[in-house]
Structures are given as C-alpha cells and as structure tokens.
C-alpha cells in the first residue's frame, strides 16, 4: 500500500513539474513577444538583411510525369536564422507547438517558384517544428509534398536524360530583407535507399542566385537534379514487341503468292497491332512537334510492315497476270509450266523470285537500321 502511494506521489510531482515547465516556457514567450513586431525582420534595426540557411531532406522522389511535364517530391524543408529579439535565459531550447503562437513570430515567406500543387502533412499532428534556443537561433522545419513543373526534352526518348530543378525564394521580401544560403556541408540530404521510378539520379547541383524581377531583386536557392531514364521498361514493353511484330510480317514471304487469305491476314493484323501499340506510346508523351527516338523506331517498323503488305500486292498481281503471248515465254523462261498447254501463262515464277529476294532484303534492311539506330541514340543519350 505504501509503495502505491509513493508511486502516485512521484507521478503527481512529475506532472506538477511539467505543468510548471510549460507555464515558465509560456511566460518567457509572452514576455519576449510583448514588444515584438512580427512585421519587422530580425535585423531591421541593424539595417541589414537576415541570413536564412536552408537544408532540404528529400524523403521521397516521385516518378516524372512525361505527359504533364512535372514530378513530385516529399521534402523536409529546414530553415535556420537568428532573431536576437528572442534571446532567453532558459537552459534548453523552447519548442513552440501552438499555431497561434507561431504566427506571432517572424518567418521568411519562402515559396517554391515552379510548384503546381503542394500540401502540408498534418497526420497525426501538423508536421511542423519551431524551435528557439537561448541565443535566438530558430529552426523552422516543415514537411511538404509538392508537385513541381519540369521542362523536359524528349528528342532522345526513351534514351533521354532530364534536368529537373527546385527553386525557392521569398515571395515578398527582397534581398535587402532576406538572404538565402544553403546549409554548409550537406545542403541536400538524400536517403541511401532513394529510388525513382524509371529514372536514375546521377547528380544534383545546389546553387545560390539572385533573381531580378520587376518588384525587386530576390535572393533564391536552386537545386538541379540530373536524371537519366532507365531503358529496361521500354525495351520490354515497346522494342521487343515491335521487333516480333515486324518479324511476323515476314512470314508472308514464305506463303504462296496466290494464298490471299493467309497473306492478307498476316499483313493487316501486324499493321493494326503496330498502330495500336504506337497509339499507346503517344498517350504517355505530350504532343510535341519534334521527332523523338521512339517515333523513328515505330516509323521504321510501320514502313517494314506496310512494305511487306505492298510486296504481297505486287506478287499476287504478278501471279495472276496473264502473258500476252507465248513468244514472251521463249524470251523469259519464267512462265507457269503446266501439262495443259491450253492453261493461261502467268508471271508466277517472277512472283516467287520477288518473294525470295524479299526474304533477305527486308530482314537485311531492318538489321542495317538497327546497326545505325542503337549506337546513335545510345551514345547521344549517354552524353546528353
């Protein structure tokens, strides 16, 4: 019984100490903010801009949306600055969780220039850290998920590399009020297991710059992400199926020139299948005016399949075309030889000859195209 009473007494003393600590913290803040002007930046009395150091922790990097030319990131935006008006004598830092209290303290109006959509995380509590130490040093950290625009070039798609950036600055405070700097050491913090769908992050380049606008010169921070597209998905989903479709169209060269149903079925089916596949590829990309690497590939496959269909039209016409007279058969011994001398003579042997030529011409032409296409676009994609 005594042990239970002792435990209850300890808990009550602990709670009383916590309440007292909270009360003291609240009292310190109220005293500091009694004459505090939230509209004045920290170094206004010294007639100099306030230095704001920024660090970004990229929690996750969403896949690039080629059709909309944007990408998403989940980022912890950490900002540091010194406000001498908030110096206090408390032994440890003060963490402010009250949103109303946070609004009474000056903060840089940082925003993302190239943002399309963004939101703060509020589960289970607002993901905001506002901490003030005894020297007036402030840490303001927020977690943001943002969809950012990225100007992309698809000339070498799907062997392309893209440069996407994040640009932050103050919305209303010029460089006479706020100066942004990257945190020394690790300005951009990335997790070791960071993965980006269909892309490899090659490198990133944080820079500091000043943007001259009509409303003044604004200090800004920019980080460029160099990304290279992974080719495995497109090779399996686009290149391998199109090679098989083109190869199937060559089967008609081994069929009899008079076999109309079989050769027409192969030609039309492969052409429609390739057209459907090309339509699916176009839906993944914006309607740009220049020619992409995938357009060159699909266009060549279309030519090969359509050429096979035209070749059948020619040989079928020859196989059914009658010779004008028998004198031609003597000059060109390629006429149809039947036991029935009265049977009409045709150019069927010439049709077979064109089929034999096509069996080597079409695969050879496609092989030559591959020998030019792959080295050209792979080398340009590596050095883009």
Topology (SSEs and partners):
Layout: H1 2-33, E1 50-61, E2 70-82, E3 94-95, H2 99-103, E4 110-112, E5 115-120, E6 128-132, E7 137-149, E8 161-170, E9 178-182, E10 188-189, E11 199-213, E12 216-229, H3 232-249, H4 260-283, H5 293-320, H6 327-331, H7 348-382
Parallel strand pairs: 1-9, 1-10
Antiparallel strand pairs: 1-2, 2-7, 3-6, 4-8, 5-7, 6-7, 8-12, 11-12
Molecular structure report:
This protein has 7 helices and 12 strands. With 384 residues, the chain is of the alpha+beta class. About 4% of the residues have low confidence.
What count of helical segments does DSSP give?
A: 7
Poorly predicted regions: 11-21, 330-334
User: Averaged pLDDT, please?
Assistant: 86
How far apart are the first and last residues' alpha carbons, in Å? 78 Å
**E-strand count:** 12
Report the β-strand fraction as a percent range.
Answer: 25-35%
Q: Tell me the series of helices and strands, N- to C-terminal.
A: HEEEHEEEEEEEEEHHHHH
What can be said about the biggest beta sheet?
A: 8 strands, mixed
Shape: rod-shaped
Brief write-up:
The protein is α+β, with helices and mostly antiparallel strands. 38% of the residues lie in helices and 26% in strands.
Q: Which keywords apply here?
A:
384 residues; alpha+beta; eight-stranded mixed beta sheet; four-stranded antiparallel beta sheet
């Amino acid at each position: 019984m005594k042990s239970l009473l002792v435990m209850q007494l300890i808990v009550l003393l602990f709670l009383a100490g916590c309440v007292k600590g909270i009360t003291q913290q609240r009292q310190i803040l109220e005293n500091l903010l009694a004459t505090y002007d939230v509209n004045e930046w920290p170094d206004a009395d010294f007639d100099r801009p306030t230095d704001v150091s920024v660090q970004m922790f990229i929690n996750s990097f969403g896949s690039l949306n080629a059709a909309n030319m944007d990408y998403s990131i989940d980022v912890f935006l950490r900002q540091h600055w010194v406000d001498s008006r908030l110096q206090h004598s408390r032994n440890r830092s003060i963490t402010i969780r009250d949103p109303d209290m946070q609004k009474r303290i000056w903060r840089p109006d940082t925003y993302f220039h190239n943002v399309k959509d963004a939101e703060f995380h509020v589960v289970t509590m607002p993901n905001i850290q506002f901490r003030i130490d005894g020297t007036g040093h402030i840490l303001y950290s927020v977690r943001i998920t943002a969809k950012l625009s990225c100007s992309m070039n698809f000339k070498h798609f799907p062997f392309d590399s893209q440069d996407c950036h994040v640009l932050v600055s103050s919305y209303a405070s010029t460089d006479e009020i706020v100066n942004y700097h990257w945190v020394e050491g690790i300005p951009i913090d990335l997790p070791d297991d960071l993965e980006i769908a269909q892309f490899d992050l090659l490198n990133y380049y944080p820079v500091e710059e000043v943007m001259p606008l009509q409303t003044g010169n604004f200090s800004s921070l920019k980080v460029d992400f160099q990304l290279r597209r992974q080719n495995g998905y497109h090779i399996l989903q686009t290149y391998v199926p199109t090679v098989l479709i083109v190869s199937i169209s060559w089967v008609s060269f081994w069929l009899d020139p008079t076999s109309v149903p079989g050769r027409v079925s192969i030609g039309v089916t492969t052409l429609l299948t390739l057209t459907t596949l090309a339509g699916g590829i176009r839906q993944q990309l914006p309607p740009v005016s220049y020619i992409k690497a995938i357009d060159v590939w699909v266009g060549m496959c279309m030519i090969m399949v359509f050429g096979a269909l035209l070749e059948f039209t020619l040989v079928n016409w020859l196989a059914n075309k009658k010779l004008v007279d028998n004198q031609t058969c003597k000059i060109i011994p390629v006429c149809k030889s039947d036991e029935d001398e009265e049977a009409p003579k045709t150019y069927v042997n010439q049709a077979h000859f064109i089929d034999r030529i096509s069996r080597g011409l079409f695969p050879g032409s496609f092989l030559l195209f591959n020998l030019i296409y792959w080295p050209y676009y792979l080398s340009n994609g590596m050095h883009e």
